[in-house]
Amino acid sequence: MYEIVFTSIGYVAASKKISFRDGKMIRAKVYLEPQVYSMSEVQVPGIRPKKWQNQLKEFKAAFLGNSEFAEKCTIKNPEVLDFKTDSKTGALIANTDSTLIVVNNALGYRMRIQLVKFQWFNTTGTYKIYHSCPKRFAIYELYAFLTV
After folding, report:
1. Which residues, other chains included, contact 60 with Cβ-Cβ below 8 Å and sequence gap of 6+?
2. SS3 readout for the chain
3. What are the extents of the domains in the chain?
4. Number of C-beta neighbours around residue 55 at 10 A
5. How far apart are the C-alpha atoms of 117 and 35, rounded to whole Å?
6. What's the pTM value of the predicted model, to 2 decimals?
7. How far apart are CA 143 and CA 127, in angstroms?
8. Over the stretch 19-59, which tens digit does the pLDDT of each residue have?
9. How far is it, in rounded angstroms, from Cα 117 to Cα 130?
């Protein structure tokens, strides 16, 4: 008696025990079950809506500024940002669960920012930044005044 194993990509292997007899052809039916694979989450980047793109533009102007040096700054992973507008104050609110990566090509540095929340008050030209400090995981509230 022999055990024959049947395999195919995408299917669970099956085996069947068969006895061979001299000069006789043997037929055997074998059914292979499909193999179910579980995968981790896959994110497919898409085109962001026009509103999100406009909010990103406003965020960049407020967060990076409008100077000659700011023009040479890039946010390497803007797709991690989420935006909303505060219905009471009209402030642009940006946050992310990921690390925001900013590269300043004019001054030659790269920053990884744990941006918890960014609020831009366009009417007054002020903003607040809440970020997580990597050494102590403390939350800071920073105020800055810009001229618009």
Report:
1. 75
2. CEEEEECCCCECCEEEEECCCCCCCCCCCCCCCECCCCCCCCCCCCCCCHHHHHHHHHHHHHHHCCCCCHHHEEECCHHHCEEEECCCCCCEEEECCCCEEEEECCCCEEEEECEEEEEEECCCCEEEEEEECCCCCCEEEEEEECCC
3. 1-38, 50-145
4. 21
5. 44
6. 0.57
7. 6
8. 777 777 777 788 888 888 777 777 776 778 899 999 999 99
9. 5
Q: Compute the distance between CA of residue 124 and CA of residue 94 in angstroms, rounded to an integer.
A: 17
* Dihedral angle of Cα 92, 93, 99, 104, to the nearest 10 degrees: 20
Q: What is the distance between the terminal CA atoms of the chain, rounded to a whole angstrom?
A: 87
